[in-house]
Hints:
- By secondary structure, this protein is an alpha/beta fold.
- The protein folds into two domains: 29-243 and 400-508, Rossmann fold, CATH 3.40.50.1820; 244-397, no CATH class.
- It is built from 15 helices and nine strands.
- It has helices at 52-60, 63-69, 140-148, 177-194, 213-227, 244-252, 260-275, 288-291, 304-309, 341-346, 356-368, 389-397, 422-434, 456-475, 483-508, and strands at residues 45-50, 78-89, 95-106, 116-122, 155-159, 202-211, 234-238, 408-412, 440-444.
- It has a nine-stranded mixed beta sheet, sandwiched between helices.
- Strand 8 (408-412), helix 13 (422-434) and strand 9 form a beta-alpha-beta unit.
- Helix 1 (52-60) crosses helix 2 (63-69), helix 2 (63-69) crosses helix 15 (483-508) and helix 14 (456-475) packs antiparallel against helix 15 (483-508).
- The longest helix has 26 residues, at 483-508.
- Mean pLDDT is 92; it is low at 1-33.
Amino acid sequence: MFRAIRVLPLLIGVPLLATCGGQGSGPTSAQMPSGRGQLITSPPTKLSSFSVSDLLSKLSGSDLGQELLKLAFSPTCSVDVYQLQYDTVGAQGESTTASGALMIPGGADPRCESPRPILLYAHGTSTLKTYNIADLTSNGEGLLVAAVFASRGYIVVAPNYAGYDTSSLGYHPYLNADQQSKDMMDALTAARSAFASTNTSDNHKLFVTGYSQGGYVAMATHRALQAAGTGVTASGPMSGPYAVAAFADAAFEGQVSGSAVVSVTLLATSYQHAYRNLYSSPTEVFEAKYAAGIDALLPSTTDVSTLVAEGRLPENALFSSTPPAPEFAAMTPATTPANLAPVFALGLGPDNLVTNNYRLSYLRDAQANPDGGFPNTSTGLPAANPGITLRQALKTNDLRDWSPTSPVLLCAGNEDPTVFYLNTQLMQGYWLKNAPGSVVTVLDVDSSASSGDPYAELKTGFAAAKALVAAGAVAGGATDGGASAVLHAYHARLVPPFCLEAVRAFFDNH
């Protein structure tokens, strides 16, 4: 009964929130700067201006915007949007370029006037190389961020990441904590150098947030800023794969998320470029029918549905439905937790992406060198001595190795089929054990409100939003009570507006 679920990549952006922006043209050699964080085009190009009424009108025309408006959302400031192009580095430290958005509030209200706080935002996964968060006419994620933060008085700095839009990098360093945090910090440096020419100034408060992949990037950036001695006022990572080593182990152990085909393709490409040791040939990991060109497939100028139709990626099946060895039959697929079992089942089948031989080698390594947080809790840390190179790379990029010294709000939903709540739980557990004095708040928007709960209204609203999605599906003929429709909408449509509002309120109080 769940066959109608369309796999959602590990993202906020496809298909429900963000659509692609324009490709644009890359910088000429004469424009190339020599230092990280240096603006390529100075002053930056102003792309658009939105009044309060413009923002409300555009929000009313999108699914996510409508969810936001139900939360009694009320913008205060107009927003000017500039395109940033700046110098940064790739996964091996090579010089490259990237682009992003600088959103500046305006208006007569005191909170819209300089000096204002800076909001550093990391976006969710996009498979489209043309992704441009500064193009609010077509990028739904950019619009939502502008509405929630810039229209409430925050200066928003939002990178597109290296490998997207006008970037000169030929790949994307997906879930590479070191490179992606550097990219974010370089965007911040570039934005600050543009303040004088855009007639703005900040009040020395810096907030960091992001959703899905961006939740991971936001946490990695907070860690890097803290290590560099740069003050972070507070951060709000949302629904991110922070414990990426445990999350990957869960997938190989049969808990295959709705993001699996896209995320594994991006991840293998990223880590192969960074470490050069995942494989000598892609056929060591991927089935022969998909191996050719897979190391340069994503991000792409072609959408995923077309790549699937062309036979370049499977739609759902990460692994074969045939167990790689008899003892792994019970996890081919996994059946618990029961509410996500239909999602897990979609991730195994014929025409699978990853070979059974590679899955078997991964599972044998996980048996010999288990993660300390999944499937059983011991140290709460990644495996001490993983054997295969992918698990070594995952350990390097897992975020269970630091403790924040400024306030953090972790927001997510416990039934997320795309980025499992396991990630939030493992970070919470790590910090409870290793940083018991840290100021960390965890919000599960899909939980019941308790007496005096400051998030009661958001939790009640989330429950209502889920019920509306289910009811709409039933009215349309669904026979499962709307369960598959809720799973389909959960990560990319239902959770984002509620977590964004929670993070905005959290930041307002700091």
